[in-house]
Amino acid sequence: MIPLGFIENCMKDNLLESAPLLRIAVCLMAGIVVGDSVSIPVPLFFVFAGCVVVALLLWRFACLQSVAIGVCCFVLGALLTVNQGRPTRKEYPSGEIRYEAESRLDRTRLFFLQQRSRLLSHLNAQGGGDEAYAVVAAMTLGDKSALTKDLREVYSVTGASHVLALSGLHLGIIYALLSLFTVGRRWQVATQALVIVCIWAFVFLVGMPVSVVRAAIMLTVYALMSLGHRDRMSLNVLAFTAILILLFHPRSLYDVSFQLSFAAVASILLFLPLMEALFPPKYLQAHPVVKWVWGIVAVSCAAQIGAAPLIAYYFGRFPTYFLLTNLIVIPAVMLILYLSLVVMVIPSFAYLLLGAAHWLNAVLARLSALPGACIDGLHPSMIQILMIYVIAGAAYLLAFRLLHIAKPA
Prior knowledge:
mainly alpha, two-stranded antiparallel sheet
């Protein structure tokens, strides 16, 4: 969860001042887009070096130096994209091919992928290759190959597709479980380090998808900052994560999962504190059930503000029952993840794991059959999507200003 103190920090400073890395991330993204779409005749390396020199010389002029740093990040984004080259179409050989890993990172990834394959084979042997196995394999190990077209459609119509793609939700549940085993402050550094190692081991195990890498970086920063007892989650952390990913893989910017992941998390970071402020903290503390339900509702609404326009743009639909769906699937995902860990130790409990997945599939199938479960045929243009985000930003600023005015001095 995002600390309530985040909204207070936002009220003290404007958004750009409280998240300086956000400007750098935006400039870097803009440079990537320009470098990918425009042919630049000048050598960008020398342009980037010149911008860095100018930025250093402007150390006495804060505003001008900020502009120069933004230009540096813009040119860097274009430089990284040009150096990486435009994507080419590759022809892959048919049949079984044997490769030899050349670096430690490749060998590590190959080792974990082998372990993943063994776990999938073991799980498949327990339950048989039905739809319950397909959901468990997707939710726990990131293997979506067994998902049928009809099952994907059920999850898409109900707005539950995000639980089939490993993301911050799954990694957050695992982090929360591992945090339960941390000991006192004396061993806090060691236990947090062990938690981080376990988180990244899971990232390698599931094949390092962008959404999981993003969540792992944020959780790593979260864990490190917790040692200093500081506010641990912010737009700065999200921007830092985006910068780190784009520096290594600039074309991740065009990945739909990258866009959806960062849009949803950014929206949660911005709108969730505003929604939490609608209920007095004392009331929520006195009513834990209301707090739990409202927490899921608030997170779901905040995430939809950021993700829904992109879902409409790429997939042409909007799930109308997403709130009801999340009230069902989030506890179900927690149960499935916890049971999967139990099954690794006690394989005979696999029937409970597959039974939970079968129940979830049945419930979502009923929801998808309800009238008006999904609005299809949406085809917004890029301009319309941008306008929706502008309206959402204006709504955020208005709500921010109203809360700022209402806050007692």
